[in-house]
Model the fold of this input.
Amino acid sequence: MWPHKNSATPYSSLWSTVKYTFPKAWSAGPRFCVAMATSALVAALLAPVAVVILAVLISNIETMIAGPTDSAIMLTPWILLAGGAAILGAVCSAVSNFNKLRLGDELSLRVQKEVLEHATSLDLKTLEDRNTQDILERARQEPGKNILNLAEGLLKVLSSSIQAFGLVAILFWIEPFWSSILLLLGIPLIIFRLYLSSVQHELKRNRTTSRRWTKYYARQMAERESVPSTKILRLAKLLLDRYEIKMREIVQSNRRFYCLQTLVTLACAFASIGVLMMAMVVVGRQAATGTITIAQFTAFWMAAWRFRGALSNLATSFSNVWKAQLSIANTREF
Done:
């Protein structure tokens, strides 16, 4: 049965989650947060800069072909600039990844400790309640990683937006109409990704009890303390059958979700590639008739393909933020 959105917690608003998350991330490692933010913003600005450098290089080559010029003077600085941009991009990626790993370790330690401290403060009757066990099970699913994912996701939303708008500026300069269509395609893509994130979260939330039972059955059949009693009472077959039933339920719900996810992803990909090809035909004809230069055509080609990637990254970042804030809501609920 497909999940219904009837399990929202009072902690599920994005702004409320952001206010809860960022103080924790900052207290865990302010220098890690600053380094991640700086490297993400610098990396975002490099994409449109690389397209501009390529366009200038091709324009200089056209000038060299048209008449005698000093090729070293015209090309060398731009090639060095392109190499410098590539090196800077590699440095930003390495710095961001290092600080992400360090911040993740600190957050995992702090938030898991908070969850366990709260668990020890509850009385035995509350802890034995089935609903409390479900809430605790959801809360313990990598709460530190969820906070890190939200912070990183918001940074990626910002950096992907900067990158996308920088590339759109180049596209609009060359071909405004088809660039507008490409930009508008981002709206349904983001909406569909957010919808899929919500559905996936509801699926995971609604099968918390089944997941707890599968862990229990597995412990009874595999852990040293439980195996002797399972063998003596000859419960292995019964436990294995019940384990398979619960896992089959999870696998079936996953399969339906995977089908929906695949169809949505393909539909968005076909639409964006179709519009992109139409734009390329129009711009290619303009280059063939001399309305625009070869350098402008090359810049449009590069910017359009990079923009499609930036749009996909933006939609994925929005989706990751939404999934992370729904997961953090589980921890806050506990």
In short: The radius of gyration is 26 Å.
